[in-house]
Amino acid sequence: MAPGSTRGLGQWPSPPHSLPCCPIGNTPAILGMTWLTLESPLIDWQQGLVTFPEQVQIASEEEADPDPLADLPTQYHEFARVFGEEEFKVLPPHREYDISIDLLPDAKLSPGPIYGMTNAESRR
User: Residue 45 has what pLDDT?
Assistant: First the structure.
């Protein structure tokens, strides 16, 4: 069930956690406490809807891959330098279709960061 999705009580795709099934007559489903605790859905009893709230994950910095070419097909190895540290620090050459952004003289920047950064980014 995708986060943020809503389903009627009779519309159940395969859930991410085990939902044991057994013949229970005309009852569409019995949701046990274990499943309810794991999924933590929002249940609208009036409309018979179960909503799975968005699950937000906090980004974290990963360790650098010691061999980044290991999972890359060999025909692409020649292009790997484009994504390397040295190419990252170099601006591309000027082209005839370059555009300019005219800045306002003596304009003041808004206080605070222009965009949010992770702790690892702000330490650089």
Answer: 86
**Bridge partners of residue 7, in order along the sequence:** 50
The CA distance from 30 to 5, in Å, is 20
Q: Specify the 3-state DSSP secondary structure of 83.
A: helix
Cα separation, 118 vs 110, in Å, equals: 20
Residue 51, classed as helix, strand or coil, is strand
How many Å apart are CA 84 and CA 56, to the nearest integer? Answer: 30
Give the SS3 label for residue 85: helix
Gyration radius from the chain CA atoms: 26
- Model confidence at 110, pLDDT cuts 50, 70, 90, reads confident
Q: Per-residue confidence at 19, pLDDT binned at 50, 70, 90?
A: low
**pLDDT for 23:** 73
